[in-house]
Amino acid sequence: MENHDTRGKFIAIAAASGLFAVTIADYIRIAGVKPDFFLLCVVLVSLLYETEWPFAIGISLGMGFLQDTFSGSRGSLNTFLLPVWSLFILQLSRKITLERVGIRICLIAVVTLVHALVTRAFSASFGNCIPWGTTLRIICTGSVYNAFVLFLFFRYINPLSLRASVR
Amino acid sequence: MFKPSKKSLIYAAAGSISFLLICSFLAIFRSPTLSILKYPLTFVTCIRREMGAAIFYHRNFTEYERLKKETDTLNSKLNLARELYLENRRLKTLLAFKQKSSYKVRAARVIGRSPDSWASTVIIDKGSGNGIKRGCIAVTPLGLAGRVVETAETTSKVMLMNDVNISVSAMVQRTRQEGLVSGTLGNTLIMRYLPQESDIRVSDVVITSGLTEMYPKGLLIGTVEEVRDEFSGLSRYAIIKPAVNLADIEEVLVIIS
User: Fold this and answer.
1) Which residues of B are less than 8 Å from A32 in CB distance?
2) Among A38, A103, A164, B39, which is disulfide-ready with A67 (CB 3.0 to 4.6 Å)?
3) Which H, E and C letters describe A89-156, residue by residue?
4) pLDDT tens for residues B43-63?
5) Distance between CA A138 and CA A36 in Å, rounded?
6) In B, what residues contact A, Cβ < 8 A?
7) What's residue B100's pLDDT?
8) Whole-number pLDDT of residue A97
9) If you compute the radius of gyration of chain B from its CA atoms, what whole number of angstroms results?
10) DSSP-based three-state secondary structure for B47
11) B117 vs A33, A70, A83: nearest CB
12) Which of A37, A72, A123 has the CB atom closest to B121's CB atom?
């Protein structure tokens, strides 16, 4: 029952952050870049629900699908890539501890960077080359911004209220 | 040394292929999802608009005063233009010229934006049920805004001019020099393939050339901010400031015929 409550809370937060990303997040752009709330939700669900991987993968798939629905990207890149990131983080959490906030912040920065490079390569494969200056701007600003938002989340929201109970 | 067995490799390959197929299959649900999400998006956008109006009250009031004065000036110019139009029509009839048909447009409100920084798209609250089709052009009274790339029954997705996937055949209004305008994912556009000897200067107006069939001729794209040489030195490119403020766009007119 407790797990259902926390899952329900997380789904509500994910839905709210998705709506926020699509409607209001434009006001908080820095250098033309806004935080990738869908990627942040994926990283969060993988960190908080490492013992409930079907839920984490399901949320990641949903987030990827919604991101592809709202964005102008061709194909289903995010539908495929976000669950892959979730799987990667779940596997990584079994090898090393990801409890410390500093490690989590580094993780989101690295994930954002690699995700951005893959997105650019995917766009280039369709013949649409994004200039390297724009790419570097999005990568650098996006990584730092995502890391900052994650830091704020762990600073002001108690992750224990969302975390699945350990069996 | 970790050595995966043949069986586990086959399972991994089959699992990856199935997952890829599922992800591709999910793409058909995007249009119905957009239609369903139209109402919460519209609600949140309305709230955002009302809060913006309250927070930026003074700025909006000052802007209102300025626009009121501008409207009065424009109304008098419009009357003069109307007179010239009627005279022009009479003269054309006399010369038996064929009349140019005007556009049929559908007004739509922006209810959502692309959630990531890799695309510049907006979601509008009109779709195929309102006569909008893929490839329709979106404009504002200020100029060209973008193109419809996806439609659902009640919503559509418009790719804005500053998206890298958009390229428009354009020309400089003053000299008729042609080039290709594309987006940069920033606040400016770039006009490429300008010959080294091309006559183009800062503040020149850039319009659509009509060479691309889907973009009617004469739509305002923007003004030239800077002209630079390409790295090869064989051609030039120009940085264009879009006529439409794409970051704050709230309503568009979609040309449906």
Assistant:
1) 117, 185-187
2) A38
3) HHHHHHHCCCCCHHHHHHHHHHHHHHHHHHHHHHHHHCCCCCCHHHHHHHHHHHHHHHHHHHHHHHHH
4) 888 888 888 888 888 888 888
5) 11
6) 19-20, 23-24, 26-27, 29-30, 33-34, 37, 40-41, 44-45, 48, 111-121, 123, 149, 157, 159, 163-165, 184-187, 247
7) 53
8) 85
9) 24
10) helix
11) A33
12) A72
Size of chain B, expressed as the number of residues it contains: 257
Q: How confident is the model at residue B1 (pLDDT cuts 50, 70, 90)?
A: low
In residues, how long is chain A? 167
CB pairs < 8 Å spanning A and B: 112
Q: Which residues of B146-183 are buried (b: 16+ CB within 10 A; e: fewer)?
A: bbbbbbbebbbbbbbbbbbbbebbbbbeeeebbbbbbb
Task: Record the tokens describing residue A141, joined without a space.
Answer: 């600003």
Q: What is the pLDDT of residue A166?
A: 42
User: Residues of chain A whose pLDDT is less than 50?
Assistant: 165-167
Q: Can you tell me the mean pLDDT for B240-247? A: 91
Question: How much is the average pLDDT of B110-124?
Answer: 88
Strand pairing category for B189-195 and B137-140: unpaired
Nearest-Å Rg of the Cα atoms of chain A is 16
pTM: 0.77
Per-residue pLDDT at B74 exceeds 70: yes
HSE-up (13 A, CA, CB side) for residue B204:
23
3-class DSSP state of A64: helix
Measure the CA–CA gap between B25 and B15, rounded to whole angstroms.
Answer: 15
Pairing state of beta strands B143-151 and B137-140?
antiparallel
- What stretches of B144-253 show up as alpha helix (H) in DSSP? none
Whether the per-residue pLDDT at B99 is higher than 80: the answer is no
CA atoms within 13 A on the CB side of B13: 7
Place of tokens 């020149």: B204
pLDDT at A167: 39
